[in-house]
Each structure stands twice: as structure tokens, then as C-alpha cells.
User: Fold Complex I assembly factor TIMMDC1, mitochondrial from Ceratodon purpureus.
Amino acid sequence: MDAATPPQEDEISPQIKAEFEEWGTKTMGGVLAGMLYGGAREAASAAKMEQSRLPFPHEDKLKPKGKIIREMTENKVLRIARGTVLGGAKLGAFVALFSGVQHGLAVHRSTHDALNTVAAGAVTGGAFSLTW
Assistant:
């Protein structure tokens, strides 16, 4: 087989398939956990901000109270949606890199041990300390 032809499905080892499936499962779990955490965090902070932004009865006579509440609700929903997407992306990328390095080392070294986890943590920590 020359370098120009892609590998056939039969040629990929079962170990690599299993590692790839496990990596995908962990990455999706990280994305979902990040989405839940990011959305919940934004919902909590939006609720605190909402309390302080409610108008007093003598304020803003020109703007109806319903319109103010609608604007606040729209802002709250947008903040929660933004927090959900960003949380999922951040934690998902972290988990994807960590699991990718860990499983890549496991395939390369043909063993699952603590050294794979330590190396994956070092690479991931180094990469994310440079970006965040």
C-alpha cells in the first residue's frame, strides 16, 4: 500500500477504534458538563443582577414596567445561552486535549498507566495556561 491511498476500515486495529470511541465519549461528556456548569453559573449571576436592576415605583415613569421586565428577561436568557456555549466549548476543548493525549500515549506505548495521565495533564495544563 502506498502513502497516497487511505487506510481501509479493516486495517485499523480494534485497540485504536476502542481508544477513539472512548476519547469521543469523554469529550462529549466534557462538553455537556461544561454546558451545564456554564449555564448554571450565568443563571445564578443573572439572578443576582436582576435583583439589583428592578426599578423602584417612582423611577422611569416613561417606560412601562412590563417592558423593563421583558428587556431584563431577554438579557438573562442571552447571558445564560452565552454561558452555556462558552462553558461547553472551554471544558470540551480541555477534556478533548487531555483525553486525546492520554489515549494517544496509550496507543503509542501500548499500555495504560499513570505516566499517560501525568503527561496528558502536563501538556493540557501547559497549553491552557498559555491561552487562558
